[in-house]
Design brief:
Layout: E1 3-6, H1 13-21, E2 27-29, H2 30-40, H3 42-52, E3 57-58, E4 61-62, H4 64-73, H5 75-96, E5 100-102, H6 106-109, E6 117-122, H7 125-136, H8 140-148, H9 153-159, E7 162-165, H10 172-183
Parallel strand pairs: 1-5, 1-6, 2-5, 6-7
Antiparallel strand pairs: 3-4
Length: 188
């Protein structure tokens, strides 16, 4: 069985994945895979350069500022980048042989179709904003821009099979244990 973990920016899904990894569960990280593939795939590099222009890369490295400007300029631009990167990540996940995957945009990207169950990690919006501002050192407006690119938390919660609440109060380890107990009969 394949399991997907999702949640909006700042929800703490990476923290939940670390708690799973502490229990010996390896989790495929779609964000890290996308970053790796953007750097290593000649096909992606060529397509992004054709789409964005020669300033998409500086030497061998992705020009994050140029790509972010292009991506945030319009929904059409964001979709064009997604159509280049997402299929490569989907294929990489399939080839990885891993059962667990983490993706912030599980539903938006369509990668949820590759998993049997989806877990959403949720947190109050203000908590999420503060976490990202502190973690990334970026202004509130930038965090809100990124949040607007993702589906509303409530919509994702309604579609998901399980929820882990990461509000800074609820016990994450206890919720992870309950989740694993709920999933274990499904593996038989």
């Amino acid at each position: 069985m394949k399991i997907g973990i999702t949640g909006g920016i700042g929800s703490g899904k990476s923290y939940v994945c670390k708690r799973l990894q502490a229990r010996g569960i390896e989790v495929y990280d779609c964000d890290n895979a996308a970053k790796r593939l953007i750097q290593t795939s000649d096909n992606i590099r060529r397509k992004l350069t054709d789409l964005i222009g020669e300033d998409a890369y500086i030497g061998e490295a992705l020009n994050k500022a140029a790509v972010a400007r292009f991506l945030l300029a319009s929904e059409h631009n964001a979709q064009a980048i997604d159509h280049i990167v997402h299929p490569a990540v989907f294929q990489d996940f399939e080839e990885s042989g891993m059962q667990w995957m983490e993706s912030a945009i599980m539903y938006e990207s369509g990668i949820y179709k590759l998993v049997d169950r989806v877990i959403v990690v949720t947190a109050p919006q203000e908590v999420r904003i503060q976490r990202v501002m502190q973690r990334d050192g970026i202004p509130r407006e930038k965090v809100e821009q990124w949040m607007q690119r993702q589906w509303p938390q409530e919509e994702v919660r309604q579609r998901a099979d399980y929820e882990i609440i990461n509000d800074g109060i609820a016990d994450i380890d206890e919720q992870v244990e309950r989740l694993l107990l709920n999933l274990s009969p499904l593996r038989i």
